[in-house]
Amino acid sequence: MPYKRTDRVNALLQRELGQVISEELNDPRISFATVTAVETTNDLRTARVHVSVLGDETKGREAMAALDRAKHHLRRIIGERTELRYVPDLVFVEDRSAERAARISSLLREARERPVPPEGSPVPREGRGSPREGRRQSTATDAPDGVLAVDKPEGWTSHDVVAVMRRVLGTKRVGHGGTLDPLATGVLPILAGRATKWVDRLHTAPKVYAALVRFGSETTTDDREGPVRREAPVPGIGRGELDTTLEAFRGEIAQVPPDRSAVKVDGRRAYAIARAGTDVRLEARTVRIDRLTIASWAPPALRILIVCGSGTYIRSLARDIGRALGSAAHLGALRRLAVGALDLGNATDVGRLRAASAAEATALLRPAGDRLLDLDERFRVVTATELLEGWEAA
Description:
About 5% of the residues have low confidence. The protein has 13 helices and 17 strands. α1 packs across α2. It has 3 domains: about 100 residues, K homology (KH) domain (GMP Synthetase, Chain A, domain 3, 2-Layer Sandwich), CATH 3.30.300; about 80 residues, Pseudouridine synthase (2-Layer Sandwich), CATH 3.30.2350; about 140 residues, Pseudouridine synthase (2-Layer Sandwich). β5 and β6 form a beta hairpin. By secondary structure, it is α+β, with helices and mostly antiparallel strands. The two termini are about 30 Å apart. It is globular. Strands 4, 5, 6, 7, 10, 13, 14, 15, 16 and 17 form a 10-stranded mixed beta sheet that branches.
């Protein structure tokens, strides 16, 4: 039925446009634009893209003009990133509902908190030291600032979660501390205010993953979302022999990123080159895997626990384990359990975040600092079977 087809295209365009605008377009006028909805005509020829821009009306007009100028470039990138045979014409429409709601909420909050002067009190003149100036200074000082672990659901991009946080806090100074693919779930660090400057430091924190490696086929994306590139028999080995093979992947190793990755080659993203049909040759990079432990082995499914450093691609790890065993494998599911001290035990789910007020969300933020880089020791000593207990992988 047409409406089902358009719904799928709408969801695809909203996700991909959100990522492309955030990661590909280096235009400061649209750096805080959020795609809130997409409406595609039944013939799939035109798509109205609703965009929320945090800022005043002038910033909104500038952002919409910049998006309109970039729409042909955006269509080309979407064509490279997706399997759409025709990318609809893009018509950008400004959506200021979220901005208006945040502004109204802020004004109501200020009105409730503002002290009522005694009857007959003189009205102070605005100027240096006036109450209004004091309120402006307090607002700047009390702006949301800190780090929050969010449990990202499957199907969401990292930018989708950032967009929710921006709307809830009513500020554009929000970013994330390490991309999770839509396939993956789990801990996504969200940084707000001055904490956004701490992101490079956060990238040095150890990360913990639960991964499902599925043997029998290798895909173009190295995960379950890509077409099968080749097939091979599932290895008929026991857990002991499998663990011996994994030894080669512990410690510092050379790893080639997936063809469909955000790594840049001559100024272009590798996934864009690959989707355009051109062979991608990426250089191996040195990454560190501190722990790689089997949780269960029930062919063709291998469940593993990984503690690793920055830059490690779990998709590549799954692919390379398959090749090391003379088979083929891809990443079937992935859940990030921790980034430093930020783990699922202190993570907020998206539903709670969306329902929170700005004050409630601000109260959840933790101060940025090196103590957030320390990984709980249990991820290094507790058995993988215990740590992955209850994880229902696809």
